[in-house]
Design goal:
Protein name: DCST1 ligase
GO molecular function, one term: ligase activity
Strand order of the largest sheet: 1-2
Subcellular location: Membrane
Structural class: mainly alpha
Low-confidence stretches: none
Radius of gyration: 45 Å
Number of strands: 4
Mean pLDDT: 76
Keywords: Ligase, Membrane, Transmembrane, Transmembrane helix
Membrane topology: Multi-pass membrane protein
Number of helices: 9
Distance between the termini: 28 Å
Length: 249
């Protein structure tokens, strides 16, 4: 039986705790990457909507400025009256009278059938186009919570395999913990070798001339950067004033 070591402050950010409702750093990083993958689709959708609006505007301008309408109207009236009561007058009325005619013609035509008929996307069509992208973005935001159930499902159906996985991760954590302090020592040594900046030099000069300013300064742990408390330890070296919490010390 193994006793689990408490996680350090820098190690907590690399683990996901299923009981926390808030999004954690590994989940937030994964969620941001998923949302970034939606950007090309969003740009393509915006490009399609803008192109549809542009084409609709151009076709509307063409239709308004290229519309031509023709109107043709004619009128024809012919009447021949033969006066008299003689036989010749009656004969002419029966023959030439058939030529009497009356006709009115009115014709209207246009090039409307040849012009383009623009049909832009309606508001419902725009909404139907945006709905899949909105659903995809919501899925990217909500997928972090179902992902936490993967290990629970795996431990229920494959307990031996999940136990092997947990032991492997724990041993990996122990190896990382062994190298963690060495890496932190190298980081502190590298920071100590760096020349102090203008602000640091001015602060040290103020502390030398006015020691009471040290009480007003809020300090933190050099390694994990936790706020200073009365239980924090100061480095025993006379030339070093680094502050460490009890765990890092």
């Amino acid at each position: 039986k193994r006793t689990l070591l408490p996680l350090l402050r820098d190690e907590i950010s690399a683990f996901v705790f299923p009981c926390h409702l808030a999004l954690q750093r590994p989940e937030l990083k994964h969620m941001v990457m998923e949302l970034l993958r939606c950007i090309p689709l969003l740009l393509f959708l915006i490009f399609v909507c803008v192109l549809d609006h542009f084409i609709f505007s151009v076709l509307s301008i063409i239709q308004n400025h290229s519309f031509v309408q023709y109107s043709y109207q004619t009128s024809h009236h012919m009447a021949i009256n033969v006066m008299g009561t003689s036989l010749m007058a009656q004969l002419l009325r029966s023959t030439i009278g058939a030529l009497n005619a009356s006709a009115d013609t009115q014709l209207e035509t246009s090039n409307l059938a040849c012009l383009p008929k623009p049909r832009g996307m309606t508001r419902e069509q725009y909404l139907n186009t945006c709905l899949p992208l909105i659903a995809l973005a919501l899925l990217c935001l909500a997928q972090v919570y179902p992902f936490r159930l993967r290990r629970v499902i795996a431990s229920f159906y494959f307990p031996k395999r999940e136990k092997t996985r947990v032991l492997f991760l724990y041993n990996k954590l122990l190896r990382q913990r062994k190298n963690f302090f060495q890496r932190q020592r190298r980081r502190i040594a590298w920071r100590a070798r760096q020349p102090p900046g203008l602000g640091t030099s001015l602060l040290e000069w103020c502390h030398q001339h006015w020691p009471w300013l040290c009480r007003c300064q809020s300090r933190s742990c050099t390694l994990c950067e936790t706020p200073g408390t009365p239980w924090h330890q100061v480095c025993s070296a006379p030339t070093c004033s680094a502050l460490y919490c009890d765990r890092c010390w």
